[in-house]
Amino acid sequence: MWGRFLLSHHREHELHRCYKLRGTFLCARCVGLYPVLLLALTAQFVFRAHPGEMAVEPWIVLGLSVPAMVDWMLGQWWPHAFSNAWRSFTGGLLGLALGRTLYIHMREPFPMGLRWQLLASLIVVVWVFLLKWARPASS
To answer: pTM of this prediction?
Structure first.
């Protein structure tokens, strides 16, 4: 049980959101997110990317985060709406965005892009959970 949970945080009824590899379930979005995040961080350190933010960079980072947030949000109501390949793709975009803001955060704590990412994520999660909570239970 714990091994499966560490590789896939989904419950039994959500395993369709995972890839099954030799009996092990891997979250489709995380399969895209974590490798891209690590590659983005590594590339920035290797090539000594400039940590300073351009005026447009927070919007680019936020824009890369939005597809995964929308995918997750819509998946709360229509669990089978998108494919695992799409979840992996949006996870990769999110990984790229998080890799950039995490790199900047390591150099200059709490950059504006990171603040916008956190705020947008918090708004989406709270909004979805409030809507789900307020929705009458289906019979």
So the answer is: 0.79
